[in-house]
């Protein structure tokens, strides 16, 4: 079945799935991320975060600005394994 | 947010794999009024940061038996819980680079076979490459493999336990931090940032914070948190690393998720208790290892890195059972393998609290073993 209302393009998650899990009590960005992978795609949530935060705001009655946007993790831009490997410094702690 | 309960039968502290599995099995066994308290959100601790590998290839009989029971459980868990757990049985391919390690592996396999874990030991690199195409392990001297091993999705698994526990009546309170514990007649009082709860039993499932929670009741645990870092790539076509590729002496583990991303990690060089900050040298080191083992992964891009805690004990084995404080129980200290053992931990705790015979005798996992100078010695651990 083709997905109609895709909110998170990287992970192909629809608005209905997001609303369903919010209704089950998963009303933080981090919880939705863990269950549905929204925000975990190559764009790291640039494409979907705002819409999802608005959905959470609607469901919980909190202002959007007060909803925690979830953790942003390095590297911010995807880097090739071979390039990253060059950064290794022998003897420095890991 | 859920209404805050004033009383409970059983309070579980910590919403990781261990706490949610324990809540599920207790509620399923008919215990009413099971309440789980989580200071952040469910799966925000080690469980949500882990490699989520599951293996029956251990070197100690108890660990083999417990892990095998977990595999049996995981194989039916989707059905039982009514939600997917993302189980993927691509096997664990363990790589030995040292003679002593290889000798130990062969002993382990003998033990595993005697327990019905039909693992395979071999030295042929070609066989390794059948399991993991293109893997560069010419410098290795031996391998073991067990097809039923693999990994599951830690988030899906934990949430599946949570949802199923809720269906049996368990309550979950997030953003609820336990800040004090008081023993009282016939139970305990649990103080939180949202008020206190009077209950009959308390189970400490606080993972790498368990020692802090234990201290609130005057119980001293020798546990500590050890930072481990891990990276994940963009999703790529399957077949890059079908098994969990792992080596103790080589210090790595690499796997590809069903979703396509590759996860890789290593043990840290030094510095424990470093919190969640990530460091570039660690991630570069992991990338270098991946590049060496899987040269064709060179153009795959890393999208994230993160850190999590191993919930360590002095012998890297868990602590299960009641403490010197009556009604105060522990299921903690899983030392880097608590995801896979969570189902069995939940089953053991449920039997103990119900006064039933547990599926495994947890006596040797008593925390007082450290004072007595005893250790549980597992050879197949990082
Ligand atoms: C990088 C990495 C890789 C790993 N790989 C594997 C693997 O491949 N296989 C495997 O089996 N294991 C693995 N582990 C280990 C595994 O993650 C842990 O052993 C397991 O998740 C422990 O589960 P837990 O439920 O005990 O702890 P956690 O998941 O840490 O849960 C404890 C919870 O307690 C909460 N808490 C703490 N204090 C309080 C308080 N005062 N009040 C309320 N709540 C509180 C925390 O917020 C946390 O959510 C790995 C760990 C890391 C870090
Ligand atoms: S659109 Fe959701 S992660 Fe990219």
Keywords, separated by commas or semicolons:
heterodimer; A: 94 residues; mainly alpha; Arc Repressor Mutant, subunit A; two-stranded antiparallel sheet; 4 helices; 7% strand; elongated; B: 382 residues; alpha/beta; FAD/NAD(P)-binding domain; D-Amino Acid Oxidase, Chain A, domain 2; 2 domains; binds flavin-adenine dinucleotide
Task: Give a short summary of the structure.
The complex is a heterodimer of chains A (94) and B (382). Chain A has 94 residues and is mainly alpha-helical.
Strand count, sense and closure of the main sheet of chain B? 8 strands, mixed
Q: Indicate the radius of gyration of chain B in whole angstroms.
A: 21 Å
Low-confidence stretches of chain A: none
Multimeric organization = heterodimer
> Which two chains touch over the largest interface?
A-B, 29 and 43 residues
What would CATH call the homologous superfamily of the largest domain in chain B? FAD/NAD(P)-binding domain
Shape of chain A: elongated
Order of helices and strands of chain B: EHEEHEHEHEEHEEEEHEEEEHEEEH
Overall residue-averaged pLDDT value of chain A:
88
Largest sheet of chain A: 2 strands, antiparallel
Q: Provide a count of the helices of chain B.
A: 8
Q: What is the tally of beta strands of chain A?
A: 3
Number of helices of chain A: 4
Computed structural class of chain B: alpha/beta
Q: Could you spell the SSE succession of chain A in H and E letters? A: EEHHHEH
Helix content of chain B: 25-40%
Task: From the 3D structure, determine the CATH topology of chain A.
Answer: Arc Repressor Mutant, subunit A
CATH C-level name of chain A: Mainly Alpha
Might you state the CATH topology name of the largest domain in chain B? FAD/NAD(P)-binding domain
């Amino acid at each position: 079945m083709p997905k109609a209302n895709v909110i998170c393009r990287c992970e192909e998650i629809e608005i209905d799935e997001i609303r369903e899990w919010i209704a089950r009590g998963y009303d933080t960005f981090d919880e939705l991320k863990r269950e549905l992978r929204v925000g975990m795609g190559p764009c790291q949530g640039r494409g979907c975060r705002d819409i999802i935060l608005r959905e959470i705001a609607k469901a919980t009655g909190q202002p959007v600005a007060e909803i925690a946007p979830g953790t942003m993790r390095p590297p911010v831009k995807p880097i090739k394994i071979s390039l990253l490997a060059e950064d290794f410094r022998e003897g420095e702690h890991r | 947010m859920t209404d805050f309960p004033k009383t409970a039968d059983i309070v579980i502290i910590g919403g990781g794999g261990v706490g949610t599995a324990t809540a599920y099995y207790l509620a399923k066994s008919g215990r009413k009024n099971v309440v789980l308290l989580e200071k952040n959100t469910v799966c925000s601790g080690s469980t949500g940061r882990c490699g989520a590998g599951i293996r029956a290839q251990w070197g100690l009989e108890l660990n083999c038996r417990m892990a095998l029971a977990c595999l049996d459980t995981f194989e039916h868990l989707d059905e039982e819980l009514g939600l997917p757990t993302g189980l993927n049985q691509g096997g664990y391919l363990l790589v030995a680079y040292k003679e002593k390690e290889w000798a130990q592996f062969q002993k382990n396999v003998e033990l595993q076979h005697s327990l019905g874990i039909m693992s395979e030991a071999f030295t042929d690199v070609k066989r390794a490459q059948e399991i993991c195409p293109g893997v560069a392990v010419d410098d290795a001297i031996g391998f073991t493999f067990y097809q039923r091993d693999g990994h599951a999705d830690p988030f899906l698994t934990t949430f599946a336990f949570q949802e199923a526990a809720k269906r049996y009546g368990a309550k979950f309170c997030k953003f609820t931090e336990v800040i004090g514990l008081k023993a009282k007649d016939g139970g305990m009082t649990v103080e939180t940032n949202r008020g206190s709860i009077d209950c009959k039993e308390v189970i400490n499932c606080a993972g790498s914070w368990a020692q802090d929670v234990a201290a609130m009741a005057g119980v001293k645990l020798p546990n500590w948190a050890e930072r481990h870092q891990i990276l994940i790539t963009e999703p790529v076509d399957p077949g890059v690393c079908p098994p969990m590729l792992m080596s103790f002496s080589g210090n790595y583990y690499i796997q590809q998720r069903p979703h396509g991303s590759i996860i890789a990690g290593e043990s840290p060089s030094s510095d424990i208790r470093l919190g969640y900050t990530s460091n570039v040298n660690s991630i570069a080191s992991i990338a270098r290892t991946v590049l060496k083992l899987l040269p064709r992964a060179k153009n795959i891009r890393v999208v994230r890195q993160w850190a999590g805690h191993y919930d360590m004990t002095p012998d890297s084995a868990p602590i299960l059972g009641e403490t010197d404080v009556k009604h105060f129980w522990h299921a903690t200290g899983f030392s880097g393998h608590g995801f896979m053992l969570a189902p069995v931990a939940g089953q053991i705790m449920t039997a103990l609290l119900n006064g039933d015979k547990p599926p495994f005798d947890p006596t040797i996992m008593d925390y007082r073993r450290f004072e007595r100078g005893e250790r549980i010695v597992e050879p197949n651990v990082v």
